[in-house]
Amino acid sequence: MTERVYGVTPPISTALPTEAEKRMHQALHEELRAQGTFESRAETEARKKVIAQLEKITTAFVKKATAETQNSFMVREAIGRVFTYGSYRLGVYGPGSDIDTLVVAPKHVTTEQYFRLFPPLLVEMAPPGAITDLTPVPDAFVPIIKFEFSGISIDLIFCSIKGLTQIPEDKSWNLTDNTLLRGLSENEVRSLNGTRVTDEILNLVPEPATFKLALRAIKLWAQRKAIYANIMGFPGGVAWAMLVARVCQLYPKATSAVVVNKFFHIMLKWPWPLPVLLKDIEYNISVTRAPVWNPKLYSSDRNHRMPIITPAYPAMCATHNINRSSKVVIMQELEKGVQVTEEIMTGRAPWKALFTKHTFFTSDFRYYLTVISSSRTKDAQNVWSGFIESRVRVLVNKIENHAAIVLARPFNKGYDRQHRCQNYEQLGDVVNSGSLAYLYKPTPEEEEKAKGEAKTEVKAELINANLKPESVLQDGPVVKPEPGTETAAPPPVTAADGAAIKPEPGAESAMPPPAPPPVADGVKQEEVTKNGDGVEQKDGNDGEVKLADIPEKKQELEVFTTNYYIGLQLGKTPASLDLSREVQEWMSMCRSSDLYKEGVNFLAVTHIKNTMLPDDVFEPGEVRPRPPKKKLKRQAPDDSSAQQPTKKSKPVGPALTPAVS
């Protein structure tokens, strides 16, 4: 009986592992456990219970949706199914990992019903307080509902199968049949293909256990090096999984340790843009209008720099977001990985040497751009910051085409902050300049209360903000330095003509009326009068308590921000660097979205030096960059009493020109 050949080419080696390689495999397994990549059995059981509860809620939802349009027999027979995909289905999840989940329903259940009926049913049927951070996002390319279920983060997408009036009750029923895609739109195909791709990957590796352990190692490495984020232009979890799976196909008998070592060698030398394939691409299957990846036919596919192609029909590129800068960064990290794993395999270094943390903030760059997304409410910020995060890579694409920019690298996550300001000027400093002078850290009680409240998306109406949009947000992009220190006096907020901004007439009337000042014990409100100076006091003896002496609580202006950082590597250091045009175009594009609400959402871009980065981007033990020490010139002794004029020192590095408003 011939042995199965995996992949589109024969294997490089089918040699059995040596005793030394087995020992290296065991050492890798122990290091991954020490690194905390495995969760406890109790945590895994909690995940299974959550999925079982989602199955019950899904069937109840399908029955309720069916009752709106179908007869009683259809309602009685109606069921829904829940499928997982991503890291959970691959079996490489760890503590705190989310569960990517798909709800499958029969053809008569619509997406509109999903977003209208499922969220309230979810809250109703789940244990009290189990559902938190509930955020439906119906306008996403793949519509999604995000929430936490008993502390486990869930990303729930939806698809109704156009060819099925009923979902089969058979537990072994799956989504591998291509005809299930018939009649689906492209975003519906993407929803269904999450599970289909995951199942195909597991079916196309020779040893699933070897693949899973190697993938855990590569995922941890990519996360530590900050190159794990599809939304920011780096490979996501599925892309890294397909790369590891391809190496497993080329070394079908190897241990996980050998697969990790060969991964770096092969991917560093891979002749990009030659695509990475786990199986031959299927063409000429006319069950859906969703396009199949084909660089000969589509120019956009020819532009993919590091194409990694999904194995399920229709084949798609999982790395279309990778740009010039992110490819350079990935190749640099692969080269370092080759050096480190060679030392590990020869016994000169332990496995933990592979998982050292990135140096994005500590030493990689001298200059950064900061994208500041902010909102007046937490719910609004959940939506707005998510949208801005999905558009940061578009700004990077614009910036890296600038003649003076060698590399523009976004950090793979944003930093959430909460601020409380006393007036509009302070609020303007936060949303326009990224001031950190008014940071607010919630108390543990407040955090617990916020966690217990269900959060829903705010989209249809403006928040009753205490602020007119034009009072803090300029029409054009704001590109100016962040405050040098948190204690420095914030720069004045100005309009386009340079005049200081104050709340427009009528803005004060839009505020909620302040609560009346408290009245001291023994003082009746009706006894309060005003003296000749307009000061309120109680009639009676001078020794009585006056209301004017009781301090009135100031109304605070709350704002939530999420900052995204882009490291800039410059060529020949220019005297100045003007990115105003690129930033202007990008900000205009973001503000044109239906998700942008004036007076609720704000957006700004500033530049900052590495020595001025906020404290919270550094972890304990990391050494933050410091300004270079100035060299003092030695002066020769001179008997002359004439004082030589002192030359002015020139600024080091380029001056980033602010964008014109």
From TrEMBL:
Pfam families named in the record: PAP_central, PAP_NTPase, PAP_RNA-bind
SUPFAM superfamilies found in the cross-reference section: Nucleotidyltransferase, PAP/Archaeal CCA-adding enzyme, C-terminal domain, PAP/OAS1 substrate-binding domain
Comp. bias regions, Basic and acidic residues: 523-549
Protein localization: Nucleus
Primary localization class, coarse: nucleus
Domain called Poly(A) polymerase nucleotidyltransferase: residue spans: 7-205
Major enzyme class: transferase
UniProt GO molecular function: ATP binding; metal ion binding; poly(A) RNA polymerase activity; RNA binding
Region ranges (Disordered): 472-549, 615-661
Domain Poly(A) polymerase central: 210-357
Catalysis performed (reactions): RNA(n) + ATP = RNA(n)-3'-adenine ribonucleotide + diphosphate
Protein name: Poly(A) polymerase
Organism (species): Podospora anserina (strain S / ATCC MYA-4624 / DSM 980 / FGSC 10383)
Phylogenetic lineage: Eukaryota, Fungi, Dikarya, Ascomycota, Pezizomycotina
